[in-house]
Amino acid sequence: MRTDDMTDYTRADVASLIDHTLLKPEATAEQVGALVSEAKELGVLAVCVSPSALPLVAPGNLIVATVCGFPSGAHASAVKAEEAADAAAKGAAEIDMVVNLGAVKAGDFDAVEADIAAVREAAPAPVVLKVIIESAALTDEEIVECCRRAEAAGADFVKTSTGFHPSGGASAHAVRLMRQTVGERLGVKASGGIRTAEAARQMLDAGASRLGLSGSATVLEGFPQA
């Protein structure tokens, strides 16, 4: 376990794991531009924006990520696949797709896997595919099986949450369970409701290898420079 004073994580360490995110439906092109400028200033890894914001010019090594089937996950697989292919063609290096939660709750995990596989086929490597499972809405058993199916379908990451579901966002428990399930084979992205340095630290301690944050600057202020 990490120490409570957070000295084991520096500001730069944490910044290198952040997807700086703006997915509000009312976000304007000007606000997206401000997001990119702030991301460069903060030294984060990536920006995550809505598909309509693509193509997006990003400075330096800043990664451009987008979402697919967002936020409900209830889109037809063919629609998700087309959305992913379009995003990749417009320069998105990473795609965060939402699983079909209805299929998860019905126990139809073959459909869940096929849905993910359709997006993977439409946006093959080197595009990075992250699978949002909406962990706060799931049982532990459902979390585990979603992670297994995401891995089987060729995903690169599993991700906790959209940040838009009424059940809530990321929890350290879910992140820990996801990490235990995928081991070091896949990344684990914690996203949704992470607004403080302490919350971020808890996710990292639990095994998160990426953080989805909209308030990145505030979170980073809580970590030491070195």
Automatic annotation (TrEMBL):
Compartment(s): Cytoplasm
Transmembrane segments: none
Catalysed transformations (reactions): 2-deoxy-D-ribose 5-phosphate = D-glyceraldehyde 3-phosphate + acetaldehyde
Enzyme Commission (EC) number: 4.1.2.4
A biological-process GO annotation: 2-deoxyribose 1-phosphate catabolic process
Pathway named in the protein's UniProt entry: Carbohydrate degradation; 2-deoxy-D-ribose 1-phosphate degradation; D-glyceraldehyde 3-phosphate and acetaldehyde from 2-deoxy-alpha-D-ribose 1-phosphate: step 2/2
Gene3D superfamilies per UniProt: Aldolase class I (3.20.20.70)
Residues forming the catalytic site: D96, K159, K189
GO cellular component: cytoplasm
Molecular function terms from GO: deoxyribose-phosphate aldolase activity
Entries under SMART domains matching the protein: DeoC
InterPro entries found in the cross-reference section: Aldolase_TIM, DeoC, DeoC/FbaB/LacD_aldolase, DeoC_typeI
Keyword Lyase in annotation: yes
Class of enzymatic activity (EC top level): lyase
Pfam families: DeoC
Keywords: Cytoplasm, Lyase, Schiff base
Function comment: Catalyzes a reversible aldol reaction between acetaldehyde and D-glyceraldehyde 3-phosphate to generate 2-deoxy-D-ribose 5-phosphate.
Family: Belongs to the DeoC/FbaB aldolase family. DeoC type 1 subfamily.
Protein name per Swiss-Prot or TrEMBL: Deoxyribose-phosphate aldolase
Organism: Sediminivirga luteola
Gene (UniProt): deoC
